[in-house]
Prior knowledge:
Elements: H1 23-40, H2 52-59, H3 63-75, E1 80-83, E2 86-88, H4 94-115, H5 121-140, H6 143-158, H7 164-188, H8 196-206, H9 209-228
Antiparallel strand pairs: 1-2
Amino acid sequence: MARAASRAMPIDRPEGGEPGGSPQPLLHASVYEDLRGRMITGKIVPGVGLSTRTLALELGVSQMPVRDALSRLAAEGAVQIRSKRKIEVPPMTPERFTDLLDCRLLLEPEAAVRALPHITQARLAHLRQIDAALDRAIREGDVIGYMESNFAFHFNIYRTNGRQTLNRLIETLWLQFGPFMRVVYGRYGTANLIDQHRIALDAIEARDAAALRRAIASDIADGMGLIGRGPWGPLTHA
């Protein structure tokens, strides 16, 4: 699990967005990707209702593209829409936790290993820059920065594999656990976590696929273990 990079470092955004020649599809895609990014990096948290009016004001758009974006996020399991006034992150349950953990362990180590042959020295140097900035974020207690750079680190590896469908599936998983990670990072902190990113970097440098697979799997287990100790029920699978 990553320690986060400083705000000065560029943060990768989630992949996606709809091509289109007219402003309306581009606007809807932009709003969707913005809200998707907020979910993944923990800027939207569980237990807080989402208001289409408030989000529209924040984004400087009408409520229509916000409603469209929230509908898409609901289809991906990131939010629940119970009514126009009742939109929120779905609760974490033991069953949902186990499903997310199993899927992450199935997909993410494989995505990293498939990326390994394509990670250039320049890409490795960039990953090391992110890792070097992580300590500063921990010292500063920058939880949002932590979340943003954790995403940046993982997807700077995964996207090198060129498997857009695989990486998009992984992003969908991150949508569902990101809000909970924001809460547990704020509650328990991150300073005592093993730096699995450093281990992953050493594995990439050595071109050791098995070691990289283990590092990514351990990183996932560490992070999801924090959710497992969270206030969402008897989550013991970590």
